[in-house]
Design goal:
Blueprint (H helix, E strand, L loop, with lengths): L15 H15 L8 H16 L5 E6 L15 E2 L6 E10 L1 H6 L5 E8 L11 E7 L13 H12 L7 E5 L5 H9 L3 E5 L3 H9 L7 E7 H14 L2 E6 L4 H9 L8 E2 H4 L6 E6 L10 E3 L2 E10 L4 E10 H10 L2
Parallel strand pairs: 1-3, 6-7, 6-8
Antiparallel strand pairs: 1-2, 3-4, 4-11, 5-8, 5-9, 9-10, 11-13, 12-13, 13-14
Helix pairs in contact: 1-2, 6-7
Length: about 325
């Protein structure tokens, strides 16, 4: 008698468990810059560390979303080949620190992030820096949409979750452009969670069942939107985006690149692969992850590792011997 196949019959390699070393390294290297007011210094330290560790991973990767064009970024630039070239062909999105301003000012919710999908499946936001977004958990599938007002989205999601509207919380970037949106959320009877930066973490929190955030909405970075989509694939949530240029020049460049400003980009438009990986390590403490902490002779990191193919979410607590990192610093001095 034949049996139905299970996920355990043919286990394959989870490259996210290798990629986490790169986000851990980036987060640790950013620590000396926390609260020092130098976001560029923090970013450079994280980029250097992430690039070094990415080079050891067995994959044939191309940076689709990185630190910028080659003439702007010496490492982890858009189009750069990463990995040792001997593994699967992948699209890669990196944000060595999502929240450089948060790191520089010593505020919470800064994380180091890598997202990966099969080659040719990740939306390439050429010249499109901003997009409207809405993100929610599994209860929001088929319920929330950018086609609806924020008030209707809150009302219908509350009903789907079995919550009173007064219990609903919407995460929004704290920006002047969101003043009207914030007023509309509050007028609908819901509360807001205003974020200084870091809308990747905000989007993920909106899709996590144990989070106090029910929805993430507003205009944020297009690259961050694609990265978030890779995580939402695992969490079973819903995400939509629509490009929203913030200047006449950006609008002109977006249209010249062939983008459609009226099109709603759904989850499969942002990343069409069902085999996505998402890795994040906390830099500073936040609701999603604890930041890097010194524990006696050890440095402790907390990371989130997601894989959509298996629907697996792992939290990785690692303790790194501080002396090893100090020795590496001395070797490069």
């Amino acid at each position: 008698m034949s049996e139905e196949p299970t996920a355990y019959e043919h286990p394959d390699r989870n490259i996210a468990m290798e990629l986490v070393r790169a986000t851990e390294a980036a987060a640790i290297r950013a620590v000396p810059w926390i609260g020092r007011g130098d976001k560029n210094g923090a970013d450079k330290a994280a980029v250097d560390a992430m690039r070094t560790f990415l080079g050891t991973v067995s994959l044939d990767g191309t940076i689709v979303i990185g630190e910028g064009e080659k003439d702007e970024a010496p490492m982890l630039f858009n189009g750069e080949a990463v990995g040792n070239g001997r593994g699967p062909q992948c699209d890669i999105a990196v944000d060595p620190i999502d929240g450089t301003t948060l790191t520089a000012s010593g505020r919470p919710n800064a994380i180091s992030v890598i997202a990966v999908s099969d080659r040719g499946t990740m939306f390439n936001p050429v010249d499109a820096f901003y997009m409207d977004k809405i993100v929610a958990g599994p209860e929001g599938v088929g319920v929330v949409s950018l086609d609806q007002s924020i008030g209707d989205n809150i009302k219908e999601l509350a009903q789907a979750k079995g919550k009173h509207i007064s219990e609903m919380v919407v995460a929004i970037l704290d920006r002047p452009r969101h003043e009207e949106l914030i007023e509309q959320v509050r007028a609908a009877g819901a509360g807001t969670r205003l974020m200084r930066d870091g809308d990747v973490a905000g989007g993920i929190n909106a899709a996590r069942w144990e989070s106090r955030v029910d929805m993430c909405a507003g205009t944020g970075g297009t690259p961050e939107g694609v990265i978030t989509a890779c995580a939402i694939k695992t969490l079973g949530g819903v995400m939509e985006g629509r490009l929203n240029p913030q200047s006449d020049l950006e609008s002109k460049n977006v249209l010249a690149a062939g983008h459609d400003l009226d099109r709603i980009l759904r989850l499969d438009d942002l990343v069409s692969s069902d085999n996505t990986f998402f890795v994040a390590t906390g830099v500073t403490d936040g609701e999603l992850l604890d930041g890097v902490r010194r524990k006696g002779p050890f440095i402790r990191t907390e990371s989130l590792v997601l894989r959509s193919k298996t629907g697996t979410a792992r939290r990785v607590i690692a303790e790194h011997q501080a002396a090893k990192w100090l020795e590496a610093d001395a070797a490069h001095a």
